[in-house]
Structure formats: C-alpha cells, structure tokens
Specification:
The chain has 457 residues and is of the alpha/beta class. The chain folds into two domains: 27-90 and 247-449, Aminopeptidase (3-Layer(aba) Sandwich), CATH 3.40.630.10; 95-242, 3-Layer(bba) Sandwich (Glucose Oxidase, domain 1), CATH 3.50.30. It has helices at residues 2-37, 40-51, 59-75, 138-141, 159-164, 168-171, 173-179, 219-231, 283-302, 324-335, 363-371, 373-376, 413-416, 429-449, and strands spanning 79-91, 96-100, 106-107, 109-111, 118-127, 145-148, 184-188, 214-217, 236-241, 244-258, 266-273, 310-316, 339-345, 353-358, 383-386, 402-408. It has an eight-stranded mixed beta sheet, with helices on both faces. An eight-stranded mixed beta sheet has the order 3-2-9-5-6-7-8-4. A hairpin with a 5-residue loop joins strand 2 and strand 3 (106-107). Mean pLDDT is 94; it is low at 1-15.
Length: 457
C-alpha cells in the first residue's frame, strides 16, 4: 500500500509538473506575441489622435464605434457586432470661468459632468466634507458658493482607496449644498498631483433640490484659492459655465468574438469602456483598457489557442455618465440565455501589470487563482486578491458571473484621470502590451481549467 501511495504521489507530481511546464511555455508565447506583434498601441493612437474625446452621444463616440467595428472585422474574428442603446448626451460647452471679482485672479477649472450651466457671484464657504453642511446654520450656506477642499489622502498606497475616500464631494456635494441654499459649488480635483489640469467626472442632481452649477478646480488652483480665502474670507468669486444636456441619442457597444470549441452557450469576456471625457483624449481612461481587451483575444486567436468557452472583447459605451452600455450588455445576455462564466475589466490605466482583483468570497475560487501565481508572477503579476471587478461588468454578477479587475500599478493613474493630461503620450507602449498579455494569460488559465459561473458565491 505504501508503494502504491508513493507511485500515485509521483504520478500526480509528474502530471502537475507537465501541466505547469505546458502552461508556462504557452504563457511565455502569449507575452512574446504581445511584445513583438501587438497592434494595440497603434489602435490607441488612432483613438486618441485621430478621434480624440469620446463622451457618449458625441461625434467622437460615434466615430470610435465605427473605427473599432471596422478594425475588428479586418482582424478576422469569428464575429463582430454592435449592441444598440440610448445614451445620455451632455455637452460641456466652451465657457468655464472661475475668478475673483474683477478678474484679478483666475483659476483653472472645468465643469463637472452632468452639471447645468449658469453664473454665480458670491462669497465662498469652505468645507472639507459633504456632511459638514448638515452641522452648519443654513444661514451660513444660503447664497454662498460652497468649496469642497478635501484632498485625496496621500498616505494610502492604493490610490483608488484615496480616490474613493473623497469622490463623494464631487458626486453628491452640489445637491447637498443646494439643499441649504448655495448658488454653486467648487471641488478640489481628485488627484495627488499638484498641477493646473482640472479633473472632471460625474455628479448627480437630487431632484428634491435646485440644480446649481458645479465645477472642479485644478489642484494647484484649489490650493491657491484656499490660501486666498484663509487670508480674506470675504473674497467674492465669480463662476460662469455654459454646459447643457441634449436628448438621449443612439450609440453602441462594440464586440469581437472568438468562438469556443466545447461549450457553445458559455462565454468569457474581457472589456473596457469606449467613451471618454471630452477634456482629454481618454488614453488611460479607458482607451488603454479597450485596446488591451481587443489585444488579449487577438493574441489567443493568433497563437492558435482553441478555447473551450466563447471569448469576447467588449467595448462598453457610456461608463462615465450612465453605464447604459453595461446594462444593455447584461440585459441581452439574460435575454439570449448566455452563460457568462467570467469577465475581466481593464479600467485602471495602461500602467505596469501588478495582478488581478477577484470579486468573490469563495475560498476555493481564490485558492484556484492563488495556485496560478507561480505562472503569473514572472511577469509582475504578484497581486492576486479579493476586490472589485469593475463597473461595466458589475451588472453580470446577478447571473453568477465571476468578475475580475485587472490591476496595473496605481500610482500615476489619478495624475491623468478625467483630465486634459490623459493623452496618448502618457501611455507607455511596453506597459500597455504587458497588460494585454496579462489578461490573455488569465483568460487562458480560466478557460483551460474550467472556472465556472457561480464561482463568486
């Protein structure tokens, strides 16, 4: 019996060694293909330089849909198709001015997404937290411009945690200020970097209160204004914006599919969002995620890998101010009775790979991913942890899909997030390609070793 046990143990170890060798060699091919034959950097260049801003409803968004639809068809995927939906159409306009009365001091600013246009001239009330307004006498707020001054916490190593800790003042601050009679709001941009690039982003109006203009100040301008107000609390500030909202319009998700060989109704997807704020080129947010997703499937196809599941690269529309593309994709998934076993989202920039966040509390699922670390760690993918998959794949969770977020290094992301500095020149070609290969490697492992729907439970 002892000899039989040892023989079985030896067989198991040899089989495991053979599998790991086979996997290791194929993952090496994945990275070689990405670093020598990738087209994703050129596709990103076209999105950023030839098309540019791609906010949903805009001409740029429509051009991006047409461009990727054509590009995917030329690449020879098994099928390329569009999913139609109505999306919001907010327009920034051409004016955003923030200055002291008389124009002696001007500040770099941009309107927040979904904000109404308008003018306001008033004294300023500085607060750090949205909740601070609840503890003040409403008379202190009425007729004022409320300035939310809280910076991103510099002590958080994970910059997404820092972002999450202060984004409420952008999203909910305007309506809370309007509740107490404020005439406009300003918010310090969500960035650790001190510069004159204001960062936009969505805000939401509560229908119970008046809609007031809302702007973001560049971090350097915010610091300068705060110091000015500390020296002279009676300083009058003037705000003028001319943004507006048009009726919803038609747009599309763009999808490329590489057919599976064993499980006809099962899908694994990797995706990013095609829309991007209109004050930059949307290079890191999220042109990088889109081209990496396309590249991940292209790599597996070009290497001749025969997937068990159908593989899709999904370019979601309208993540920035509505999630209409994500909701439409999930709706059609349910309608068409498609089983989505796993979904990877890339929406954290095109920086150096660090790992993946697995949206699960299932210990067996986490253990499976942990078991792949020896195969992934040589490529910098050392962070395999429990965490959020992403906004666009989130609606798939109710159907049992395992959602996974690609994690690049986060330190520079918020230097550019939602800002005019989010340009093609800020993306490193090699880092972008390594990210695409990282996602291709994980798709390969999940597809080969049978990650199943419901693994997030």
């Amino acid at each position: 019996m002892k000899h039989l046990f040892l023989a079985l143990l030896l067989f198991t170890m040899q089989a495991k060694s053979q599998i790991n060798t086979e996997d290791s060699l194929f993952i090496r091919q994945i990275f070689d293909e990405a670093l020598t034959n990738s087209t994703c950097y050129d596709v990103l260049r076209h999105l950023c330089k030839e098309i540019g801003p791609r906010l949903s409803g805009s001409r740029g968004a429509a051009e991006a849909v047409d461009y990727l639809h054509s590009t995917f068809k030329k690449e020879g995927f098994d099928s390329v198709f569009l999913q139609e939906m109505l999306v919001p159409h907010w327009v920034r306009g051409s004016v955003c001015k923030v200055s002291s009365a008389g124009g002696q001091n001007t500040f770099s600013a941009c309107a927040l997404g979904n904000s109404m246009g308008g003018k306001a001239t008033a004294k300023v009330l500085m607060v750090e937290h949205v909740e601070d307004l609840d503890s003040l006498d409403p008379a202190q707020i009425k007729g004022k411009i409320v300035f939310f001054t809280r910076p991103m916490e510099p002590r958080h190593i994970n910059t997404f945690k820092a972002y999450g800790g202060c984004v409420d003042q952008r999203w909910a601050g305007p309506s809370k200020a309007a509740k107490y009679g404020a005439v406009a709001t300003m918010v310090r941009s969500m960035s650790h970097k001190e510069d004159e690039f204001p960062h936009t982003g969505s805000m939401s109006y509560d229908t119970l209160y008046p809609k007031i203009p809302a702007v973001a100040l560049a971090t350097a301008s915010a610091s300068r204004l705060k110091k000015m107000l500390e020296q002279n609390p009676n300083t009058i500030i003037e705000i003028e914006t001319d943004c507006y909202t048009l009726p919803d319009t038609i747009s599309h998700n763009v999808i490329a599919q590489y057919n599976g060989t064993e499980i006809p109704g099962a899908y694994m997807i990797v995706g990013g969002h095609l829309d991007a704020w209109d004050n930059g080129e949307g290079a890191h947010d999220d042109g990088a995620g889109c081209v990496q997703s396309y590249e991940a499937i292209r790599i597996l196809k070009n290497l001749g890998y025969k997937p068990r599941n159908n593989l899709r690269a999904v370019m979601f529309m309208n993540e920035e101010n509505g999630l209409r593309g994500a909701k439409k994709y999930a709706e059609l998934t349910a309608k068409n009775r498609e089983t989505h076993t796993a979904a990877i989202e890339s929406d954290r920039g095109g920086f150096s790979p660090r790992g993946f966040a697995i949206e699960t509390n299932n210990k067996e699922t986490l253990a499976l991913f942990e078991s792949w670390k020896p195969l992934l760690s040589p490529y910098g993918l050392t962070d395999i942890l429990e965490g959020s998959g992403g906004a666009d794949i989130g609606p798939l969770k109710s159907g049992g899909t395992l959602c996974i977020g690609y994690l690049p290094d986060s330190q520079r992301y918020f230097d550019h997030h939602h800002a005019g500095s989010d340009t093609f020149e800020e993306v490193n070609k090699r880092e972008l390609e390594l990210g695409a290969a990282s996602m291709a490697a994980l798709i390969y492992l999940m597809d080969k070793y049978g990650v199943v729907a419901g693994a997030s439970d």
